[in-house]
């Protein structure tokens, strides 16, 4: 699977984050760990597992790339392995 889908958004793979996985999955999609965007305060972009912290939002192309806790905003898209893609 390519890193970007046909709409130039980043394909993602959801991981648990309990072991080191790095930034990218074997299929070249970006590893993400979903958080609720509220609990735990500021998380930043990267999780200790190497994956990207992500918050699921409604599909809104005018939404910012980053959530207020530093995570990447993603929205549902059935074409991605995890069912989510990045805003841009």
Task: Give a short summary of the structure.
The chain is an all-beta fold and 88 residues long. It has no helices and five strands.
Write the topology of this structure.
Layout: E1 12-14, E2 30-35, E3 52-56, E4 72-76, E5 84-86
Helix content: under 10%
Global morphology: globular
Strand content: 25-35%
Report the mean per-residue pLDDT as an integer: 83
Number of strands: 5
Q: What's the Cα radius of gyration?
A: 12 Å
Series of secondary-structure elements, N-terminal to C-terminal = EEEEE
Low-pLDDT segments, ≥5 res: none
Number of contiguous helices: 0
Instruction: Count up the domains.
Output: 1
Key phrases:
single chain; 88 residues; five-stranded mixed β-sheet; globular; 5 strands
Description:
The structure is a single chain. The chain has 88 residues and is mostly beta strands. The chain has one domain. The protein has no helices and five strands. The chain is globular and about 35 Å long. The model has no long low-confidence stretch (mean pLDDT 83).
């Amino acid at each position: 699977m390519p890193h970007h889908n046909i709409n130039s958004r980043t394909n993602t793979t959801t991981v648990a984050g309990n072991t080191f996985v790095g930034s990218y999955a074997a299929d070249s999609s970006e590893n993400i760990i979903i958080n609720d965007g509220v609990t735990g305060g500021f998380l930043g972009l990267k999780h200790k597992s190497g994956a990207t912290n992500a918050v699921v939002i409604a599909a809104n192309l005018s939404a910012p790339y980053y959530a207020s806790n530093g995570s990447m905003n993603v929205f549902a898209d059935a074409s991605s392995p995890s069912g989510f893609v990045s805003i841009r």
